[in-house]
Specification:
- It comes from Crossiella cryophila.
- One of its GO terms (biological process) is Actinobacterium-type cell wall biogenesis.
- Pfam families: AMP-binding, AMP-dom_DIP2-like, PP-binding.
- GO terms for molecular function: adenylyltransferase activity; ligase activity; phosphopantetheine binding.
- There is one protein chain.
- With about 625 residues, the protein is of the alpha/beta class.
- It folds into four domains: about 10-150, Rossmann fold (3-Layer(aba) Sandwich); about 315-420, Luciferase, domain 3 (Roll); about 425-540, ANL, C-terminal domain (GMP Synthetase, Chain A, domain 3, 2-Layer Sandwich), CATH 3.30.300; about 545-634, ACP-like (Non-ribosomal Peptide Synthetase Peptidyl Carrier Protein, Chain A).
- About 35% of the residues lie in helices and about 20% in strands.
- Strands 11-12-13-14-17 form a five-stranded mixed β-sheet.
- α14 (about 435-445) crosses α15 (about 480-500).
- The longest helix has 24 residues, at about 545-565.
- The protein is globular, with a radius of gyration of 25 Å.
């Protein structure tokens, strides 16, 4: 196992050294904590994460990987929310990160939790005893990209990890001498399971590049693959796109990618243009088209669900009007088409395409929700029986099950699974299903100044029904007139290419589009911030009626937070709109008083239970805004 800060130097552990250090930590943990207790792993990229993870498994503890608390408040709150949700017994970190972890625990009221520093632990590895574990024993809580107030920890067993790691190796045709490596953070399921676990269990080693080194200079990733003879690596589509755009001709000339056998592409929509451009760009360095392997997977399935091997990626131009009506078929000449990439065949799962409303299984050529069944489906969500039953306990209309409802939309065509979008993200505009990814990609592809930047599309209520809003990052120095021209051009592109009403295009600085740890845009959070007026736009091209409604919602939210703060004897700035109000001391008496204030101010009849069913200021604002808008329409 190697920790690479840059391609010119590295810190490494042999298998024997990793085993010895993991046993040492396990002895320390087992002497203080019971099997099954949870340990929060807070590390920068490096070998210490591997020591901590395997040390937890050696001690029978459940590892809870998490991003190290960063500078952004919402990220620190989310990590604290995970620590509380998992009811962790110990925090594990290293000397380099200890100061920041201790500051974070003090800030979040977690100072009472013991902290283990993996690189200073003293114990005799000879005292280690194998814990009593089975394949069903819980090994890992992999937290998905939930909100700050409602994190969801996927329960992954030892058997899940072993089965999925072996499935990954065999699916991509790799042997036990293949070396794995990459830049994905190890707290992410693709980095942890797809790289670290598969690399140490099924290969000849694992190499980890500091993710920030990749983000700063993408060619470092490719240079690591070349120098350390890495045959298998994984990345979201974003990573391959960054290499295509930012690796220079001089850097390309220094690379030998002929030994690269598995360029696994997953974790977000796989785009045909990205694949084609990467293959063309790095072909001169020896990269082979059949090494690019589109996949589909998710944490709830442990990781990999479907994959490809031994062929050039399959991209099919599909009929767009048919797609909007739930059909998946190749487009005839002259028909509007969208290129979809095949994500291969099942990797040991029973894969169904199901109507999300009737629960009937759909045949090949029809779009529906992707359901998965099999022994590598994870065990459910930690401490959340209701969500577990809804997501992991689905049955088809004819009684088959249980299945995992992925929330993803897709269909089969000629044996391959094609993912078309997220069910919950699908925008229904004038009776048509529009996928936000299509809108985002179309605008970036048609406007060079927006290429390679992030954007998010969503719908909001307009004067005549649902209308599309796009929040788009932009880089560079532009005059207000130029920004207005760019926003208007983007508006026209959406209207022309999709035939939908456009409520607004909002241009923001790079980094302003919120994303998950795996790089996916946080649509619901961005929609909320837009409606609440919390974006800081460089320019807004917005429908005046929509702007007025948004301003009223923002005023409602600010007023509500001020009332809550007044009753709780706090400053409005103390109230985090994403945290449950009960954490600040909200009780039934105060709730009734606030309800009365709302009724008096907006001439409404409000159920006092509304504040309990919508526990945060954000959620309560949304619910009240809906009531006010309904009253206005009457």
């Amino acid at each position: 196992m190697a920790d690479v800060d840059d391609p010119m130097g590295h810190i490494g552990l042999t298998y024997a050294q990793l085993d010895e250090r993991a046993r040492r930590l396990a002895v320390w943990l087992a002497g203080r904590f019971a099997p099954g207790e949870r340990a929060l792993l807070l590390f920068n990229a490096g070998v210490e994460f591997g020591v901590a993870f395997y040390g937890c498994l050696y001690a029978g503890l459940v590892a809870v990987p998490c991003p190290r608390p960063g500078r952004y408040r919402h990220e620190r709150h989310r990590t604290a929310g995970i620590a509380r949700d998992a009811d962790v017994a110990v925090l594990l970190t290293d000397s380099a990160t200890l100061d920041s972890v201790e500051k974070w625990t003090a800030e979040e009221g977690l100072s009472a939790l013991p902290v283990g520093v993996t690189d200073t632990v003293e114990a005799d590895p000879a005292d280690w005893r194998r814990p009593a574990l089975s394949t069903d024993s819980l090994a890992l809580l992999q937290y998905t990209s939930g909100s700050t107030g409602s994190p969801k920890g996927v329960m992954v067993g030892h058997g899940n990890l072993l089965d999925n790691a072996e499935s990954i190796r065999t699916t991509f045709g790799l042997d036990r001498q293949s070396r794995w490596g990459g830049w994905i953070p190890l707290y992410h399921d693709m980095g942890l399971i797809g790289h670290l676990i598969t690399g140490t269990l099924c290969g000849s080693g694992f190499v980890q590049l500091d993710p920030t080194a990749f983000l700063r200079r993408p060619h470092h990733w490719l240079k690591v693959l070349d120098r350390f003879d890495v045959q298998a690596t994984a990345s979201p589509d974003f990573g391959y796109d960054q290499c295509t755009r930012r690796v220079t001709d001089e850097q390309l000339a220094e690379l030998d990618l002929s030994r690269w056998r598995a360029a696994i592409n997953g974790s977000e929509p796989v785009r045909s243009p990205t694949l084609d451009r990467f293959i063309e760009r790095f072909g001169p360095a020896g990269f082979r088209p059949q090494s690019m392997l589109p996949t589909y997977g998710l944490a709830e399935a442990t990781l990999l669900a479907t994959g490809t091997h031994g062929r050039r990626p399959l991209a099919v131009p599909v009929d767009v009007p048919a797609l909007e009506q739930g059909e998946l078929r190749a487009a005839a000449p002259g028909v509007p088409a969208r290129d979809l990439v095949g994500c291969g065949v099942s990797c040991g799962f029973d894969v169904l395409v199901v109507d999300p409303h009737t629960l009937e299984v759909r045949p090949d050529g029809r779009i529906g929700e992707i359901w998965l069944g099999g022994h590598t489906v994870a065990q459910g969500y930690w401490g959340n029986r209701q969500a577990t039953e809804a997501t992991f306990g689905a049955h088809t209309a004819d009684g088959r099950g249980p299945y995992l409802r992925t929330g993803d939309l897709g269909g089969r065509l000629d044996g391959d699974l094609f993912v078309t979008g997220r069910h919950k993200d699908t925008m229904v505009v004038h009776g048509r299903n529009i996928h936000p990814q299509d809108v985002e990609h179309e605008v970036r592809d048609q406007h060079e100044e927006l290429a390679g930047l992030h954007s998010v599309a969503f719908t909001v209520d307009g004067a005549t029904g649902e209308t599309v809003v796009l929040v788009q990052e932009i880089r560079g120095s532009y005059s207000p007139e130029q920004l207005g021209t760019i926003a208007e051009a983007a508006t026209q592109t959406i209207a022309r290419e999709f035939g939908v009403p456009v409520g607004g295009v909002v241009l923001v600085r790079p980094g302003a589009v919120l994303r998950t740890t795996s790089g996916k845009v946080r649509r619901s959070d961005m929609r909320r911030d837009y409606l609440d007026g919390r974006l800081e736009p460089l320019h807004t091209n917005e429908d005046p009626l929509l702007a007025g409604a948004r301003q009223r919602r923002s005023e409602l939210r600010d007023w509500l937070i001020t009332r809550v703060a007044t009753y709780l004897r706090r400053q409005p700035s103390d109230i985090d709109p994403a945290r449950p109000l009960v954490e600040y001391g909200l009780d039934s008496v105060t709730t009734l008083a606030i309800t009365t204030d709302v009724e008096d101010r907006y001439d409404l009849v409000v159920d006092p239970a509304l504040a309990w069913t919508h526990p945060t200021a954000d959620a309560l604002t949304t619910a009240l805004a809906t009531l006010i808008e309904e009253k206005t329409r009457q």
